[in-house]
Amino acid sequence: MTTKFISDLHLSADRPDITGLFVDFLRHEARSAEALYILGDLFEYWIGDDDETPFHRHIKSELKSFTQSGIPCYFIHGNRDFLVGQRFSDETGVELLPEPSVIELYGVPTVILHGDTLCTDDTSYQRFRKIIRHPWLLSIARTFPLALRRKIATFLRDNSSGNSENSQETKPLTEAELAKYDATPHAVDALFQDTGTVQMIHGHTHRPNIHEHPHGIRIVLGDWYDQGSILDVDASGTTLRSEPLIKD
């Protein structure tokens, strides 16, 4: 049995190729897993559990079918879908986890997270994150009308790294941008020490790789822009791989 990890799918109705691979993954490959962990940015953006679009209903239906098959599915918020809430969890059977979370993964103490908190060189984003993720502000934001939340989400998306000013679709970051917004060694080492773990799994930086640090191994999941990125973990070790998107 394997435990599978994915992140940074950025699902949207505009990318049926990504959606197709994810649905196929849930219906087939993932059904043989011991558990599935989604480490943030499952959606391109999520403005609230009450945003009942046909696309969102489709994804929730697929997740519900998956969890009803008996396989646990866990979710950690990303920087694009931090408004996913308890209603989503109740409707899908997906369990929401705090960030970071520590799990025992085949005898290896492992810390899992989305990964944006590790990018401490991006000081402007870290300041923004502290404000936008404050519990008081989150509770107020959920009361905003859907139309207003949609406008805010569009503004934030179109002004985030890697997007042109008038882009309607998120684009992959350039190598220079990826380096600028990467995890810093200091933040990684601090998290290892704070959690007492020897393995770390995260996404967000879109630079899939396995890194050796003084305090442990850090596994970075890839994004799903041009391929699907999947991490398989079992008692014998880890495999980080990619799968082709499903074209129409």
The total of beta strands comes to 11
User: Could you state the order of secondary-structure elements as H and E?
Assistant: EHEHEHEEEHHHHHEEEEE
Q: Specify Rg, calculated over alpha carbons.
A: 17 Å
By CATH, the topology is: Purple Acid Phosphatase, chain A, domain 2
Second-tier CATH architecture? 4-Layer Sandwich
Provide the domain count.
1
- Globally, the shape reads globular
For the record, give the distance between the C-alpha atoms at the N and C termini, rounded to a whole number. Answer: 32 Å
Q: Are there runs of 5+ residues with pLDDT below 50, and where?
A: 161-169
User: What's the story with the biggest beta sheet?
Assistant: 6 strands, mixed
Quick description:
One of its GO terms (biological process) is lipid A biosynthetic process. The protein contains 8 helices and 11 strands.
